Every structure is written in structure tokens, then in C-alpha cells.
Amino acid sequence: MVSQSSDPDAASDDLVAEPKKALNTKRTGELAEAAFLHKAVGLGFRVTKPWGDSERYDFVLDSGRRLWRVQIKCTASIRAGGYHIQPIHFVYGKNKVVYTAEDIDVLAAHIVPLDVWYVVPVQALAQGRSLRLYPNGGCERARFEKYREAWDFFRGAEGAGVTPVEAAGDEDVDPVEERAMQWIIRRPIWKPHIIRMR
Question: Going by C-beta distance under 8 Å and a sequence separation of 6 or more, which residues neighbour residue 161?
């Protein structure tokens, strides 16, 4: 039987915390996804998590005007004065491949120790295999600083550091949405096969 101390501030043997273990990359990614969910919902967006983890994107964000496929990346380590993010995924037989507009709409990069987000449209990724982010300054030509905390990009607001992808008028067709619709139309529909027993 465990003895109880009369001192309420004294730690019992079963409540003593074990030393913190380093998180593996999967666990770190899960924490970044939770942080994104908390931030996006706190800003008034609706967020959906796709079933399973087979899609190239981690979340679908509903801005009220359209749906965005969002891939989450995170980092906590500094290299050459900046935080390094790789906007890549692995494809069997091709190794590392940069995300394209066929995969995602936005890459949301989380700088974990500073709790800073970069909302980067896929078009800005080009074919670069890395993003160097400088939330503390230190780089005169930091390409991605205009995407820092650019959450208004999802709403299509000017001044979010980027030109919104969405079309201005109702009659204009957004090429990204049109491409997405073509993909949806061409996508095979799964129908369950019912076997009748006699």
C-alpha cells in the first residue's frame, strides 16, 4: 500500500514525471496538425480531416468561399539562420517530389518554438526542394516572409501578402477550381459490389 503524505505539495511516487523523451517525426507531425486545427478553428474557419492518411493533404479548410487542401509541415531547428522546411512527399519509384497544384492548394508551415505559421500557396513552391523561413529576421531577401501569418489568404482578402487565387467576379472561373472540378468529374466512383446469395 502506498503511504499518503500530509503535505499536499509533496510528489507521490506514482505522480513523479519521467524524463521527457524526444518525439519522433510522426508524433511531431501530429502535434503540428493539432496546432493547425486549433489555430484555424480559432480564426473562424471550418476544418475537416480526411479519412486515413493516403491523401497528399492533411486537412480540408472551408473558408466559406471555397475548400482548400492544406498540407502541414513543421520544424523546430535552425539552419544557416533560418528555419528549414521541405515541401516534398515521397512517391514510390521517384523518391522525393515537390508538392504541386494536383496535390495540395496550400502548405502551412509551423515554426514550433515560436508558434509562427506561414501560409504558402502551392504556386509559390515552384520546384524548390526547401523553404528557408526567417521569422526572426536575418535575411535581406527572405522570399517567404510575405506568407507569414497570411491566414487572410484563405478568405481571398487583399493585403494577405499574396494575390488571392480566387476569381474576382461570379462569372469568372478560377483555373484552380476548374482543374479541381475536372479532377472530381474524372475521378472514378466506387460502388459496392453486392453478392446475392441464393
Answer: 146, 147, 148, 150, 153
Nearest Cα residue to 72 out of 91, 85, 84: 85
- The count of residues in the chain is 198
Q: Which three cell numbers stand for residue 195?
A: 453478392
Residues 184-195: tens digit of each pLDDT: 334 444 445 556
- CA 25-33-26 angle, 5° bins: 15
- Return the pLDDT at 182: 41
Instruction: Return the SS3 of 70.
Output: strand
pTM of the model: 0.68
| DSSP class of 148 | B
Domains of the chain in sequence order: 21-186 (3.40.1350.10)
